[in-house]
Amino acid sequence: MSALMNRLTRDHRRFARIMALLDALVARFQGGDEPDYELMCEMLEYVVDYADQVHHPSEELIFTALRQGLGATASGPEMDPSALALAITELSDQHRQLEDTSRAFRDALEGIVHGEVLSRDAVAGQGQALIALMRSHIADEEARVFPVARTMLSADDWSRLEQQAPSAADPVFGQLDPLRFRTLYDYLKDEIDPEDAA
């Protein structure tokens, strides 16, 4: 399998971990407790910055390569060209939705930290919407597009995509950015498995 696909799959596991933690914090918040806002804001900064600057642009490169190859090589029962084209369009749209939803939720949490009075239910609803969208998005990519990419794209395609893909290190699970993500790293450090530290 390509190094790029391995990275994207590993990113999905990492995002799932972040979403599980965020889900627990949002539930506490909705229940009336005061969660660790700094931790929540760091989680959202990680999702916004890493996902939107590195992960999603890498996936978009794969989507473009798949679109270009639809007419030429798509064959077999797992490659219905119209279903694949629809899945790619939906997932691309979701990348923009995830960015907007993440930023709005982060802005709301930062507003609370700075004394804004916001509806707890509305803010919790934003968090729940983000978590649900991220989880369904990852599941869709893993089920509908990644298997096709693994079979449809050639070694040359993967080599080209790996050269084009953004290459920034993961600032939490990879090369830590201690100024931005210390609270999140400290929270996760005992849970990070060696494969995720790569």
Automatic annotation (TrEMBL):
Hemerythrin-like domain mapped to chain residues: 6-148
PANTHER family in alphabetical order: BLL2471 PROTEIN-RELATED (PTHR39966), HEMERYTHRIN-LIKE DOMAIN-CONTAINING PROTEIN (PTHR39966:SF1)
Pfam families: Hemerythrin (PF01814)
Source taxonomy: Bacteria, Pseudomonadati, Pseudomonadota, Gammaproteobacteria, Chromatiales
Superkingdom field: Bacteria
GO cellular component: plasma membrane
Name of the protein in question: Hemerythrin-like domain-containing protein
